[in-house]
Specification:
about 725 residues; alpha+beta; Transferase(Phosphotransferase), domain 1; six-stranded antiparallel β-sheet; five-stranded antiparallel β-sheet; 15 helices; 43 strands; about 20% helix
C-alpha cells in the first residue's frame, strides 16, 4: 500500500502558496484572519496569517496594515518572533513570522495549572522585554492575551504584534466597538477606543500575570460588557497573587495610564529570573511532541512551486478562491473553499494512502485496493414521495424519523418500516439528544417531539418580520426538566443571544449576549452538511450549558446562567468550518475544523489535543469511546476519546468518470460500526468497522437518488435518500 505522494495512482492536487511559501495546515483562526503553518522555499517553518477578505477589501485597512508591517519588521528582540515576509496589499494580504512549536500561555495554564511565583517572574520579565522592544519602534500590541503568548523551550514569545492597529482602524469605523479581549483591555481603551498608549499594553501584562498565577482573569468572568465595566470602575481581584508580586501587579493595573510603570521598569523589577522555572514536566513532554511533529512537517516532500500565476494565492480572486466548492451550494462553498485547497495531495484511487499528515499519527490506512464488498439486502425498504432535497434522518429512541424543513416528519417502526406517526403541523429544524425540535406554524411556540410524537411547547416570541427566517436561525442547545436553552442570532454580522428558559412557563431565567459564531453556522443550509454527534455551538449536559463565543468556550450553570469556567484560545480549524461540542463521560470534546481538543467538564482544563486531521472535517460520530471524523475526498479518521490517540484512518474510493473520491457527510455510530453517506460519482453509504476501520460493505442504488443520510441504533443502520428509506443489519444486535 502506498504511503507517500509520489506513487502511481495519486493525482496531484494543486498546493496552495502564499507568496513563495507552501501552506501545510491551519493552526488557528481569529477575528482578523486564519493562521496557517507554512514552509518556506528554504525549508523553514512559518506561521502565516492571511487576512479575511472583508478587511482586505478596505483601502484604509491595506494602507494601515502596510504601515504596521513595516514597523513590525523593525522589531528586534529575543521574545518576539521576527516578521520574515509579508504582502500587505492585494486580494488577500498576509504576514509571515517564524514558527514556534509551542503551546500558548492559555493552553499551559489550562493543562498544567497556574505558574509558580518563579515561573510568573520569568514570564513577566520576558513579556516586559518583548513589549519594550515593540514599543521602541512605535508599535503598540493592543491585544496581549493568553492566546498571544507562546511558551517555548527557551522562553516565552509575544505574537500577533504589528497588525492590530490596522484591524482597529477598520473595525472601529464599521462598528464603533472597542477591539481586544475582555478581561485584558485597558480601561482607557474601553472608555475611548481610539486611545493608543504603550501603557495599555502594560495593563494587559498585569492581567496576564494575574491569570498565570491564579488561573483566572483579574476582572472575573461573564458577559463582555460586565467584564469591561469592572475593568473601568472596580478594583482587580488579586487574591492568589503572592504578596511579593502584588505591588507590581497592582501598579500595572492602575486605572490611570500615567501611573503605570513602563515595560522596561517592569523588567527591572522582576529581574533576576530563572527561565527554567516555566518548564514543568508536563510542558516539557508537550514541547517534545510538538517538536517531533514540526520535524515531520519540515521533512515531508515539498511541492513544486507553481508555474502559472493562477496557482498563487495573490492571483486568486475572492470568487475564484471560494468557488472551488460550487458543487456544495453557494453558502457551503464559501465556508469550505480554503480547507479544500489545503490538501497537498489527495487519495483518489483504490490502494493509495492519504498524505498531508504523518501516517503514524492516525495508524495505518485501512482502505483497500480491492473493490469494497456489496451491501447485504436491506431488512426493509420504504419508498417516499414529495420529500424535498435537504431531508434529514434521525433516530428518536428506537424510532427512525424522516423529516425536512417545511414538510413535516414521519416516524417509522424500526423493525418493519411501517409508518408509526406523521406530523405536518410543525416547522421542524433540528434533532438533538433524542428529540426533534421545531416551531408551531404561527411561530408562537417552540415545539419538541419524543419518539412517540408526544410534544411539549413553550411560548416563543418571534417578530412578524423575522418569522420567515425563524426556523433557519433558532437553535436549541438542550433541555432538562427545569430549563431549556435556546440560541438565535440578533445580527447577521455574527452576534446573538443564548437564553435559558423555564420549559413550563417560557419565563426567561437568564440571557447571555454572544459576539461571534452565531449567524452563519445557524443557517439551515449549513446544518444538514455539518452534522453528526454533538452540537455546533452549544449543548446542555450534567447541569451545565456549554457554548462558544468566538474562540472562548463558556460553561455556565444551566438554571442560573452563572459562569463556572471559561476556556480561551479555541480558534476554529479553518475558514468557516464548523465546530462541534460533544460530551462523553467527564470530557467535553471540541472539534475545530481539523483539530480535536478534550476539556474536563468540571474545570475546563485541557486533557489532550489530538493530532491534526489532514482533511477538512465535515462531520463526526461518537460511539463506544471512539470518535470518527469524516472529511472530504472519502477520508475518515478515528481516535480514542480517552487519550486522544489516533487509531486508524480509512478511505473509500470509487472509480467514476471524473476519477474523484467520495466525500463523507453526517456519519453515524452503531454497535461496532460507523455508517457514512457517500457523495461523488453516485450516492450511497458505506459501513466501516469501528475497531479496525476496514470497509465492511458499500451500498449504492441502481440509479442516483440524491444525497444519502444515515442514522444508526444498536446493530441497525438506516439510510435515507430523497426517495427511499432502507434499514440494514450492520453490526451486532
Amino acid at each position: 500500500m502506498a504511503a507517500n505522494g509520489d506513487t502511481e495512482g495519486i493525482a496531484a492536487q494543486p498546493a496552495v502558496f502564499v507568496g513563495p511559501h507552501q501552506l501545510l495546515r491551519p493552526l488557528g483562526e481569529g477575528g482578523m484572519g486564519v493562521v496557517y503553518l507554512a514552509r518556506s522555499p528554504g525549508l523553514r517553518l512559518l506561521a502565516v496569517k492571511v487576512i479575511r477578505a472583508e478587511y482586505a477589501e478596505d483601502p484604509q485597512f491595506q494602507r494601515r496594515f502596510q504601515q504596521e508591517v513595516e514597523a513590525a519588521r523593525r522589531v528586534t528582540g529575543f521574545h518576539t518572533p521576527p516578521v520574515v515576509d509579508a504582502q500587505p496589499r492585494g486580494p488577500r494580504p498576509w504576514m509571515a513570522t517564524s514558527y514556534l512549536p509551542a503551546p500558548s500561555l492559555g493552553e499551559v495554564v489550562r493543562r498544567f495549572g497556574p505558574l509558580s511565583e518563579a515561573g510568573a517572574r520569568a514570564l513577566g520579565a520576558a513579556l516586559a522585554e518583548a513589549l519594550a522592544a515593540i514599543h521602541a519602534v512605535g508599535v503598540v500590541h493592543r491585544d496581549l492575551k493568553p492566546g498571544n503568548v507562546l511558551i517555548a523551550r527557551d522562553g516565552p514569545r509575544v505574537i500577533d504584534f504589528g497588525i492590530s492597529r490596522a484591524f482597529d482602524a477598520v473595525h472601529l469605523t464599521r462598528t464603533g466597538m472597542v477591539c481586544g479581549t475582555p478581561g485584558y483591555i485597558a480601561p482607557e481603551r474601553i472608555v475611548s477606543a481610539s486611545v493608543t498608549l504603550a501603557s495599555s499594553d502594560v495593563f494587559s501584562l498585569g492581567c496576564l500575570l494575574v491569570y498565570a498565577l491564579t488561573g483566572r482573569a483579574p476582572f472575573g468572568t461573564g458577559e463582555p460588557a460586565q467584564i469591561n465595566r469592572r475593568a473601568v470602575y472596580e478594583e482587580p481581584e488579586l487574591a492568589g497573587v503572592p504578596a511579593v508580586l502584588r505591588p507590581l501587579v497592582a501598579a500595572c493595573l492602575d486605572k490611570e495610564p500615567a501611573r503605570r510603570p513602563a515595560a522596561a521598569a517592569v523588567l527591572a523589577a522582576l529581574a533576576p529570573v530563572d527561565p527554567a522555572a516555566l518548564l514543568s514536566p508536563g510542558l516539557l513532554a508537550d514541547l517534545d511532541a510538538r517538536e517531533r511533529q514540526a520535524a515531520i512537517d519540515l521533512a515531508a516532500p515539498p511541492a513544486d512551486p507553481p508555474l502559472l500565476p493562477v496557482r498563487t494565492w495573490q492571483s486568486l480572486s475572492r470568487r475564484g478562491l471560494f468557488g472551488l466548492g460550487a458543487g456544495l451550494g453557494a453558502g457551503a462553498a464559501a465556508a469550505v473553499g480554503v480547507p479544500l485547497l489545503l490538501t497537498r495531495r489527495a487519495r483518489v484511487a483504490a490502494g493509495t494512502a492519504t498524505v498531508g499528515n504523518p501516517v503514524d499519527a492516525w495508524g495505518a490506512d485501512t482502505g483497500g485496493a480491492s473493490p469494497s464488498p456489496e451491501a447485504p439486502a436491506p431488512l426493509w425498504s420504504r419508498p417516499f414521495s414529495g420529500v424535498a432535497v435537504g431531508h434529514q434522518l434521525s433516530v428518536l429512541g428506537p424510532t427512525p424519523v424522516w423529516w425536512s424543513q417545511g414538510l413535516g416528519a414521519t416516524g417509522l417502526d424500526g423493525s418493519t418500516g411501517r409508518q408509526a406517526w406523521s406530523r405536518q403541523d410543525v416547522q421542524f429544524f433540528q434533532a438533538q439528544n433524542g428529540l426533534l425540535y421545531g416551531t408551531s406554524m404561527d411561530f408562537k411556540s417552540l415545539v419538541w417531539l419524543n419518539a412517540t410524537a408526544e410534544d411539549h411547547r413553550i411560548p416563543l416570541t418571534v417578530p412578524a418580520e423575522q418569522r420567515m427566517d425563524a426556523e433557519m436561525s433558532i437553535r436549541v442547545f438542550g433541555a432538562d426538566d427545569r430549563t431549556v436553552v435556546i440560541a438565535r442570532p440578533t445580527a447577521f454580522a455574527g452576534g446573538g443571544v443564548v437564553v435559558g428558559a423555564d420549559p413550563g412557563t417560557g419565563e426567561v431565567l437568564w440571557q447571555h449576549d454572544v459576539a461571534q459564531n452565531m449567524a452563519v453556522p445557524m443557517a439551515r443550509d449549513y446544518e444538514p452538511l455539518y452534522s453528526g454527534s454533538g452540537s455546533s455551538m452549544g449543548l446542555v449536559a450534567d447541569g451545565r450549558c456549554y457554548y462558544r463565543d468566538g474562540d472562548v468556550l463558556h460553561a455556565v450553570d444551566l438554571r442560573t446562567g452563572a459562569s463556572q469556567w471559561q476556556a480561551a484560545g479555541l480558534a476554529g480549524g479553518g475558514a468557516g468550518l464548523p465546530s462541534r461540542l460533544i460530551r462523553t463521560g467527564e470530557l467535553l470534546l471540541v472539534v475545530n475544523g481539523q483539530t480535536v481538543v478534550a476539556l474536563e467538564t468540571a474545570t475546563g482544563r485541557q486533557r489532550w489535543l489530538a493530532p491534526p486531521v489532514p482533511q477538512a472535517v465535515f462531520g463526526c460520530a461518537l460511539g463506544a469511546g471512539r470518535l470518527l471524523l469524516s472529511g472530504n475526498l472519502g477520508t475518515a479518521y478515528c481516535l480514542d476519546v480517552t487519550t486522544g490517540k489516533g487509531l486508524w484512518h480509512s478511505t473509500v474510493a470509487t472509480a467514476t468518470s471524473a476519477g474523484t473520491g467520495m466525500d463523507f457527510r453526517v456519519p453515524s455510530a452503531g454497535d461496532g460500526f460507523f455508517g457514512v453517506p457517500l457523495l461523488g460519482g453516485s450516492s450511497g453509504a458505506a459501513v466501516l468497522d469501528a475497531t479496525s476501520g476496514a470497509v465492511r460493505w458499500v451500498s449504492r442504488p441502481a440509479s442516483d437518488e440524491g444525497q444519502w443520510t444515515t442514522a444508526a441504533v444498536g446493530g441497525t443502520l438506516y439510510c435515507a435518500s430523497s426517495t427511499t428509506l432502507r434499514a440494514f443489519r450492520a453490526g451486532a444486535a
